[in-house]
Design goal:
Elements (H helix, E strand, L loop, with lengths): L1 H38 L1 H8 L7 H11 L4 H13 L4 H10 L5 H10 L2 H24 L38 H9 L2 H33 L2 H8 L4 H10 L7 H12 L11 H13 L2 H10 L2 H24 L4
Length: 329
Amino acid sequence: MESVLQVISELGVGIWAEFIDILPYLAIGVLLEAIIRTMKWHLKIRHALTRFGGYAIILGTLLGVVSPLCACATLPLVISLLLAGLPLAPAMALLVASPLMSPAGYTLLNWELGPVWANAVLVSAVLFGLFAGYMTLFLRRYGFSEELIFKNSLPEGDFHDPEYPVEELRCDCGQQLSHRVNRCTHNKFLVFLAKFWEGMIKIGKFALLGVVIEVLAIQFIPNEWVSGILAGNGVLPIFGLAFATIPLHLPQVTAAAMLYGFVSPEFGEGITVSRGAGIALLVGGPVTALPVMGLFIAMFKKRVLALYLGICVSGTLILAFSYRALPFF
């Protein structure tokens, strides 16, 4: 019994120490996101998406990179933009790029894995968004025009309306603390503080989850197994990670926190993550969120889910093998 309690105590101490270590950098990223949300800069770009024609794919990709939204929060937004007249190509660019990068994600990656990895994932997010957008644009003539993608016609109305009839798309943001503060005070500074608190709770739980998974893995999984997957330079680790992460809900912050423990000599095993395997995990994990695929199945025709998965898997593999082949980085 004492040995079990000792193991639990050691796990708790390790998890707490790692989480406290990344907390300042998490706070910096959340601070940037709170400023963006308070000033509503992402909303201004979003409203411009439907008016920029051929440039909308580029704009959708850039919005995805600066947006603090994960894949699960981006898909209802994408559906609302589609109903407002946005073509599927820029909508797909936004949906793919958004979970791969955010201000909080960048600051955490920069601290946990270093600026080289942070910039590599940033470039990957931009390239992935452009790839998704232009591939969808190319396939538009083959049954992917906006009027052919939904299973059923969606009722008109505002997703923010608590009475909107489609429950999967109904937004409850009006109940968020920042919205309540705004209705009561209209004070931007108080709204900013509320948004900062919301961001710390939302992103902090994903970072903590990554730390928990990593600490448990180090404790119970042989180091040579983990090292063989993450540090391996062959093709099998890339394919294995790319396909293993498809059914997982692995947000970028969680994936980065997991890797941090493995590469950190202070907290983990000091593993040097290979370029291909690292990109496969940091890109492939966040982009194929299981809840997103569930909403795809409910709202869209099967070929749209197939297109999304095809883009996610092929894009992950292309990026992973491309980074693996680079003579630098």
